[in-house]
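Dear colleagues,

As part of the handover before I leave the project, I'm documenting each prediction I ran so the next person doesn't have to rerun anything. This entry is a single chain, and its sequence is reproduced below.
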Amino acid sequence: MLIIIASQFLMRGFNNKSIEETNNWINIAGRNRSLSIKILSLSQQIIHGDQSAKKELNTIIAQLETALRTLQLGGEVVFNNKVVHLKPVESSILPLFNTLQKDWQAYQDQILKINTESFRKYTPAQQRVIIQKAVTANEKFIGTSNFIIEKVNLTNRASQQKVAEMRRLVILSNVFILLLVIYIFWKYAFRPLHKLSEVANNMVLGNLEEVLDIDQKDEIGRIANATAELAYNLKEVKTFVRHLGQGNYDVQLEMETKNRMIAEGSLFMTLVVARDRLRQLMVENQKQTWASHGLAEFGDTLSAGDTDLKDLTSTVISQLVKYMNGNQGGLFLLNEIKETADKSAQKQLELVSCYGYSEKRRKNRKILLDDDFGGGLLGQALIEKGTIHQVKVPADYFEVSLGMDEITNGNILIVPLISNQIEIGVLEIGSFIEFENHQIEFVENLADRIASTILNIQAGVKTTYLLMEAEEQKDILQAQEEEMRQNVEELRSIHEVMEKKQKELELQNQRIKSSELVLKKALKQLGEQKIELEETNEILHAQEEEMRQNVEELISTQEALALKSKNLEHQNKFITTSIYYAQNIQQAILPSREDLLSLLKGGFVIYRPKDIVSGDFYWLSRVEEKVIVAAVDCTGHGVPGAFMSMIGNTLLNQIINEKKATDPADILRLLDKSIYEDLNQQKTSNREGMDVCLCVIEYEEDKAKVMYGGAKRGLYYYHQNNLEELKGDRFSIGGWQSYTEKYFTSKELILDVGDRLYLSSDGFVDTPNPKRKSMGTKRLRQILQTSASLSMNEQQTAVENALNNFQQDAEQRDDILLIGVEL
């Protein structure tokens, strides 16, 4: 046996080493082809302005030159993160390798021309010639490499044939020796091993109850004993895994119940670690679900439209203390005590709502803020603009004012309410149970939303007060003008009467002169009163202009607050595969429901990807006073469609947000040109593109002007109780046709406030039922027409129910996207 094994080992080792050396040579030569292609790709990136690719290009050129020298002369080279030794090429291949070096030098010369600064001085025609030469040189280099690899393979096969003949001779010489030992192996090894094999197969099939009857003292006997023990352990593992699959993460192994040592790296330790990790993931998922549910619940409360600050804060603090399993809570708002003759202006925190406070605490609960020492922990939280979490707070905790004196050995959580760098107040929660990190983070996120809502309410109250004050000033001014008009009328009447009696009173000239003097004095006084009224009128106009500016500033503040609210979205932190990570990225670039509601009066989005990621996407932005919304259907679905959607989203951001293009025809034209050039469709077979429905909305008093542009996608709009449709242009974005051959148009609609727009991809009308019949445009129009009288939320539910009832359990055919917008 030793002779057989030794001879076979030597022959196999010699053969394997030869094969390995040849395979290494071929693999490195193949990698050189990939590197040459990547060099051409990086050069094209540099041509398009990506200067960061130069460093990588120089590194790859150096790697390829080193590999060529090593392939020719032999030596060591790094391949797949390990050092590989190569022997020099055979003399028969050396002339071919010299040709390969010349091809590489010609290719490198063209690449160096492309990556020099002088390349930009060439005309576009000259640049294309240089690039074409580089492509030709690369193809020639790859062709020579392929020929050399084929030559090496032929040489290697001839060598392997000789080795195979030698192995056959060695095998024939060993056959006789094998026949002598077969009987011994059959009696003492093969038969017991056959029994072990049957037991092992039964174990694979799940039968762990079969008993082994092998009673030997040799290695096979020990294997039999180990197999029996393995079967027992597998039964325990099977039971353990079944419990884990049922969600019982408290199950224990027998070794744990008996306090036996579990070896590191063993199967049992792996199962224990997996159980503990699953338990930890379940707890973390519960925490994340708890926080998400809480933010959604409080978001509904804050967005319910309640403008009474006291009622809103009372509801929020009561709901928050209960949700946090706390005992007490209070919400303090920051206000300013106006300056008086004997006292300077000072800030104070005033308790506006509380939960669980005593009667004494609810009366006149105010905390003055001192510039030097703050106002206890509440004031300190505002000064530091950060959360304060005190654990095990005693009742006599030094002399610090906690704002929650009743709790003994409790936990205090103080979170400042700050929105857009504006200090609003402080949120305070107390509990006998220590707050966990995810609870603190939840309260901090919620505090931002509470502060934003309170600031909006306060701004609305201030705006209402200013408008009322302006109306009062206007009424006073009108009254004064009316009084002045009446005085003038009375004066005119007196003047007319005196003219009529002038002839009759000629004999009383002296008395008339006296009356004239009195009249002139009265006119003078009346003129002085008129001047005073005009000055008063100018002052009131100035005050009215100042109030108008204040209102505009408040509106700007509200818009800034609305813009900030878009940044409160959180992404999922746990990803499992690269596709789900791509889904998170795609969902992150899509506008959120908060974005939709902040820019539009109302709306909904029905978005159902066919696969994990989608080729459809929707886009929303505001440029100056115009709101732009788009529904885009990219070629394909799944990962290819998702790549196109990422490109389309990026180009829309550049065209609209950066270049400030707001005309739909210009936007579609620039988007088509960018797709055509970026995907190099004029030189490649790439025909990817997208269909677009795009609207630019601008409000004018009680009307809304809608500019529409469509690339093979129409627009539905509901106006005067009728559902109408505007057809899009017959061109797609991108594809086989050049952008110079396309012409996109903009169409204008003047609609009433309250009318609705509907933008969609073709996935909705292509949705099949179980008989594979599509829903169709007619059925979609009927659904939108019949549900248009409902609210936007109710209409979304009605449309989704109609879609589900039609589709039932049929497989989705394409990505589905439908956007509803209320003007």
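Residues 396-402, 570-576 have pLDDT under 50 and may be disordered. The first strand starts at residue 75 and ends at 79.

All the best with the project,
I.
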